[in-house]
Structures are given as structure tokens and as C-alpha cells.
């Protein structure tokens, strides 16, 4: 069962996903780039959510590690979007 802190973090991840999806719909970027950043961003929350119901500590750590890797990939795609559009995303 997820703690209140985990629930709050997951809500922030959901909001991040929604924000990135909305951003991609507004910016003139290639569909392939939009799809990649949306997939990596939504994967962060999906893996964090799965970690909350992990079958073992090892399973939990693995899912959190995957979420961390997806966050790094998201930063990469957002940097590309910044270069493509000339707009700061921060």
C-alpha cells in the first residue's frame, strides 16, 4: 500500500505527464520526437506506480531504477525540443 508521500509523488508524475502531452500538442515538433518524450515521461509514473506494488524489495528497486532511467531519457528529449523550438522549457 502506497504511503501519502508516494501518492503525492505519483500525482506530481501524473501532472508532469499531462503537462508534457499538452506541450507536445502545442509545439511545432516532429511527431517522432513528441511520441518519444511522451512515452518516456509517462513511463516514469507508470514504473513508480508499479513499484508501489512490487513483489519484493529487489523488484521495488528495479522498478524505481527504471523510472530513474526514464527520467534521464525525458530530460534528453526535452533538451532536443528546446533546441528545435528555441524555447526554454523551464
Describe the fold and architecture:
- The model has no long low-confidence stretch (mean pLDDT 95).
- The relative contact order is 0.15.
- This protein has one domain: de novo design (two linked rop proteins), CATH 1.20.1440.60.
- The protein has helices at 4-26, 31-52, 57-85.
- The chain has 90 residues and is mainly alpha-helical.
- Helix 1 (4-26) runs antiparallel to helix 2 (31-52) and helix 2 runs antiparallel to helix 3 (57-85).
Helices, by number, come to: 3
- Global mean pLDDT: 95
β-strand amount: under 5%
Per CATH, what is the topology? de novo design (two linked rop proteins)
**Largest sheet geometry:** none
Under CATH at level 1, the class stands as: Mainly Alpha
Uncertain parts: none
Order of SSEs, N→C? HHH
Please give the number of β-strands. 0
- What structural class results from the helix and strand content? mainly alpha
Shape: elongated
**Number of domains as seen in the coordinates:** 1
Assign the CATH architecture.
Up-down Bundle
